[in-house]
Here is the input.
Amino acid sequence: MSGSKFKIIAGLGNPGKNYAQTRHNIGFLTIEALALKSSLLIDQTRFDSEYVKTRIKGVSLFLVKPLTYMNKSGFPIHRFASYYKVAMEDIIIIHDDMDLDFGKIKIVKSRGHGGHNGVRSILNAFGKKDCIRIRIGVGHPKSQENGHQKDITGYVLGDFSKDEKKMLDSVIDTACNACFHLLENSVTSAMNLFNHR
Here is the structure.
């Protein structure tokens, strides 16, 4: 990571109680867990985001939850980064990913959006793709018997299944550990540790 004074860890999701426990909000859930592990409350608002400023592993950073809907996540994160002069490579984005099996975690850097609207919004807002991303697998809706794909929007905005709920705490815990590791080590080290589990 470069020499910005602060880093940003932003989780993606949709605001509001209706979305709180849905697959698409696993980024928010991870940010909340990071705050909890550090005995923090995400109780401040700025730039269309809820956030808290803190130090974790000796690093000054912001934990950020954009309050715009998912497909406009880029604007608040970009405003945060501009105001606090945070280079894009000092930003970690945490988001759901349908291309990974539920619970699988993959760390990537400087990659395209892969069809994820929240990530697309961020890359568009910055005009580049230098951020680090923690992709958290939520699985893909299986094709129905008649061959039609289940409604993808309904799937990501749907609640976790019973089996997924049993695994959820452990998955979020792993994502938090990936964040902690990234704050102390290189991206390559984090990829080697978490991408092959």
Summary: The helical segments are 26-37, 74-83, 117-126, 152-156, 162-184, 187-194. The two ends are 24 Å apart (CA to CA). The first strand starts at residue 7 and ends at 11.
